[in-house]
Amino acid sequence: MTIKSTKILFLPFLNIPSGHHQVADSLMYEIELNEPRIKCEKAEILSYSYGKLEALVSGIYLKWIHLFPHLYNWIYQQSVYKNIEQHKKFRLYELLFLAQMKQLINEKQPDCVICTHALPSYMLNVMKEKGIINIPVINVYTDFFIHRFWGTNHIDFHFVSSPNMKELLEKKGIPEERIWFTGIPVHHEIKPDRKPVMKHHSSCLSIMVTGGNLGVGAMEDLLNNIKTSGKIKFYVLCGKNNLLYRKLQRLNNTNIIPLKYITCRKEMNELYDSIDGILTKPGGVTISECLRKRKPTFIYHALPGQEVINLDQLQQLGVVFYLSDWRDIESQLFTFFDNNEHLVEMNSSLESYHRQLVDKRISELIQQIL
């Protein structure tokens, strides 16, 4: 007798390497590793609907953020984050994607759909509201906030990453039992570390610097401002920014060590274990990995839109430090590690955050739903 397999469809958006894809890929790998009868597939609705137009949209999106950051941030705030408790209809997106989403679901015939981006979540929420589908749909949020584009009321389960998100959903009328505080999923090879942040007794610190795997952001400007004394080794993840990697190599500075894009999560876990702290921007997955490893996290820059809001939410949680002044980065880092009050506050905030997380892996929760 053949046992019927269960099919889960994952829906990120755009094909640029982003947290939406990282989260989907991590969950797909872990689910299939632990439960062979479950088959996972990933689809991207823009390329499915309009083919090569997706590459053009992705390119414009990245250039827009880089060239007009303030305009992007204003439009983002106005369109999806203002009055977030109020319901909003996005008719244009329904016109562009609703029929294609129906076709995709009919074609793939999944037993469950997991959304790691707001656009597919919104479309499926509309479809469930109209009674077009009745399979379970799960929102796995990849930031530390929920904006108005996410479908919520007719989505079956919500995997959130902050208490404020849970509170917002409850205000929208979502029953508590449909909201799970899971944190943003990370790859299972990023092993949890339960040791508290300790006062640093060594004369040298090891700090990882990252700006996202596309190399987008102000990382290069930051590095130009760092005056290295030899007391800190900066391990710079250049992502796919080969130009930055070559520039840093040419500097021939023994205190600034450039690293190419690390695809192996086990290798990434070892790097986390070897460092004292992280200089980064507030991307959801990167911060979630830092939280999992309980590493002191210092924010040097936030991209417009999602990251600006993430930074605000993370500061409220007390789990990051924002370095707005780049004039003496080394001194600020040493001051943190030598200040017992800072260490106590960070350990308390990290402990509070971890205490609220559900005591199950996300892949287990998904299997429970199925």
Question: Which labels suit this protein?
Answer:
Rossmann fold; hexosyltransferase activity; 370 residues; single chain; six-stranded parallel beta sheet; 2 domains; alpha/beta; 12 strands; 47% helix
Distance between the termini: 21 Å
The CATH superfamily of the largest domain is identified as Glycogen Phosphorylase B
The proportion of residues in beta strands is 5-15%
Record the strand order, biggest sheet: 2-1-3-4-5-6
What gross morphology would you assign? Answer: globular
SSE arrangement, N to C: EHEHHHHEHEEHEEHEHEHEHEHEHHH
Evaluate the radius of gyration: 21 Å
Which percent range fits the helix content?
Answer: 40-55%
Parts with pLDDT < 50 across at least 5 consecutive residues: none
The major pleated sheet works out as: 6 strands, parallel
CATH topology of the largest domain: Rossmann fold
| Total helical elements | 15
Helix-strand category: alpha/beta
| Overall mean confidence score, pLDDT | 91
- The figure for the number of domains is 2
Subcellular location: Membrane
InterPro entries: Diacylglyc_glucosyltr_N, Glyco_trans_28_C, Glycosyltransf_28_UgtP
Domain Glycosyl transferase family 28 C-terminal: 207-297
Domain Diacylglycerol glucosyltransferase N-terminal: 20-186
